[in-house]
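## Example record

The block below lists the input lines for one assembly entry, exactly as stored, with component labels intact.
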Amino acid sequence: MSQGETSLKQASQSGPRGCNTAAALAGGRIREQFPILETTVHGKPLIYMDSAATTQKPQRVIDAIVRHFTHRCSNVHRGVHKLSQLATESYESARETVRRGIGAAESQEIIFTRGTTEAINLVAQTFGRQRIGEGDEVLITAMEHHSNIVPWQMLRDEKGIVLKVVPINDRGDIDLNDYEALLSDRTRMVSIALISNALGTINPVKEMVRLAHARNIPVLVDGAQAVGHDVVDVQDLDCDFFALSGHKMYAPSGIGALYGKADLLDEMPPYQGGGDMIATVTFDKTVYNGIPHRFEAGTPNIVGAVGMGAAFDFLQETCFEAITAHEHDLLTYATEQVGAVPGIRLIGTAKKKAAVLSFMLEGAHPHDVGTILDLDGIAVRAGHHCAQPVMDRFGVPATVRASFAVYNLRSDIDALVQGLHKVREVFCK
Amino acid sequence: MSEFRELYQEVILDHGKNPRNFREAAEGERTAYGHNPLCGDKIQVHVAMDHGVIENVAFHGQGCAISTASASMMTQTLKGKTLEAAETMFQSFHNLITGTGDPETDLAGLGKLAVFAGVREFPVRVKCATLAWHTFKAALTHSEEPASTE
Ligand SMILES: Cc1ncc(COP(=O)(O)O)c(C=O)c1O
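Predicted structure tokens for the full assembly:
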């Protein structure tokens, strides 16, 4: 019995009542909830393994969006009429669902954004601009997504702050000693991914937060790849900020959230100016609204928030214990099976990994691999994954990346392996 | 024939694997850099001109099979051509791989480059096939900016 099967069995025995089990997910029933999986691509059934880029949407999320537009469409926080009240109720109750979904203490600590990118920019442009000055340091890691690099570089160019980078080893892990050594008395901010989208590495974020807090340094966690795959509890992590994207956790694109501790948010200046973020406006003076509304200028993505709420409901119903066990099984199986294809070099072999498998096939460029797989209906990502420094670190221009979610099956991985053999026939004769 | 064979013709695979005129710039050649930010392909194209005629073209860098083969075959095709002829070829080549223009006339002037016709079924790969050509043009104009497919 393979290692994957053992963990599957244990998980299936421990699944609480009313919840899915890893065995149930492995059986694939959940796929019925994802209408897009019926699609064919180039005449072949779609095999979708690009969930780290964006996840597919369950019927429940699609229905919530349709229901909103059918019955509750209106602006929020602005009308006395019934529909406006209903829309406001839906929007604010989605905020509450997000709060619960990531374990925040209060719903006013949840700010809706366009996604992770906007959440990080918001922190850089408000908290960062206010509190980080010339010569002060922001510490990130070598595996960050461009969205956790560029906003800090913009601040560097504007204010002369210093960007420091924790290195990664050949497996794609950081060393906590390196990290600790880089925390200096000039460090004003640590900003790190919980899970790397390019390598799958799960960082020891809780420990990293503890080490930073011991020096009174606040920590932003980029949770884009984490939410939807494992339980996230921002109070347990004790991070100061947490950024997430709806579209990577079964919700629509264009919606995401920033969590921030209330006492920090309270002190922060507004991000953008406009409607909803103000208490009173005269031409002489504007009094800003309280949190979270101070950071939500203009009409927000109401239906996006509704979809995100529904996605959290979907996750809760599906059960994290089952999701984590199922995805771990897929990763283990994929690592074995893909790793056994001749000429494969895995990029990212960290000790703790999420269900992301990045690799190179000797003799074939990732783009060519991607095209040949696509013709078999297999969707994987080929590229630099918005993490060019990671590519440079491993000396590759790009990688092929297969990433998994609740709806994937071991048979998807079998199809991938078959596809890779086909690529080898073409390129590696 | 499988669908991917229409794209990855034997000639393309051969040039992808064993690119011709693949070398660093030589003394006196004009060089330009080309970059496809989508996939990270990076190439340099070197050109030596002699009285309005392309005396020599070579390239260097890394890319997928389509972009490498396209660059390799471009260098072979352009050698000895006038700039006007090169411009006409690029136009025909572009028409061919985007499925625009008049296939009859375009194919007639393209010779071996006709093997890239399959690219038209793969719109995301058009940029791979044109990167070398854009970079070639940049080398002629001595552009300081890297040529980009974007
Ligand atoms: C780790 C990580 N951070 C940030 C982002 C940016 O997310 P978004 O594009 O949704 O803002 C991504 C998306 O790929 C990601 O994987």
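Chain B has one domain: 2-140. Chain B touches chain A through 21 residues (CB under 8 Å).
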